[in-house]
């Protein structure tokens, strides 16, 4: 079998997605997600200009060799653009292998290790009342684990909080489906870590009082704290028994986690912006985290993320794969197949794509009783309707950025 055709398809149904579509001389089609939120076209160019010419005529069965060829062959390794491009190739090749074998990808990865994947959704609100409504609506949708993000008194707009758009002067800003703002310039948000640290423990206390001790609760600190601030937050949240505290400090400074770890037993998750096993190596070996947040789409594909998770398993560290709406349905399917197969699955983030996205990408996964399952169609189980995709041209969209009250730029 040979790769005959390699197309890069950009579509923007509810938000921008980049998909690599490979077709073989035997007519098998494989899809890979190459979406890098806010910098999508850089990956399009990387694929079209530098990767597609290398793929034509190659044997699609040689997944490991193709991965090494693209990673080592380029000489310039790692980085989000390179790794998103390689990820798309890797996913598409697994998709083709599954279709050629007549098996879902999870079977090729060793078969199912569980009945389904516990998934968490994103509840948020500017006020505690709004937050409670959002938690209730997630429970009604069947979620059995919930991420809690809340407004902070005195701050006008915080990333990850739905329904703040109107106050922020833009009624169209809906976090759930469109965190990136379409248009020429990104939205400015504001931040005050001391106010946040004062406010958040009370919010978790209120949520526990309202919804009881059993519901797994998560929180994303989105890289905004210093190590000592993160240590304090971890300690302050201990009575509320979090499933995890995510990205408490900027992910580049891995030593920060040593300090956080010395002070708190709140479980830690990190890695949605990491690209390779090298980013995780030390924090896994030193057992500084509890969950690996890498996304199939941003870690170079199923092949290297499986290796990273197998390594993590030696230290009882589990998966918590990134799954916001900027991971396309193809990237989500890849995460579900991998999560079903590995032994050390922890939890899967699941935000739910919008209706238009689901019309462009037909998917075989199921969502019932708070659990995801990738389905049993051969390959990844996703097809792309090219005509439907063509209705939604690319629209420039930026993630927001953050400033402190005095105007200093801050991590968001
Ligand atoms: C999460 C994330 C996302 C990212 C987004 C950036 O935990 O789901 O933090 O909301 O910010 O994916 O593109
Ligand atoms: Mg996050």
Detailed description of the structure:
By secondary structure, this protein is of the alpha/beta class. The chain folds into two domains: 3-104, Enolase-like, N-terminal domain (Enolase-like, domain 1); 117-377, Enolase-like C-terminal domain (TIM Barrel), CATH 3.20.20.120. Helices cover 36% and strands 19% of the residues. The strands form five sheets. Strands 4, 5, 8, 9, 10, 11, 12, 13, 15 and 16 form a ten-stranded mixed beta sheet that branches. Helix 2 packs antiparallel against helix 3 and helix 7 packs parallel to helix 8. The chain is globular. The structure holds D-gluconic acid and magnesium ion.
What does this entry show, briefly?
This protein folds into 2 domains: 3-104, Enolase-like, domain 1; 117-377, TIM Barrel. It contains 13 helices and 20 strands.
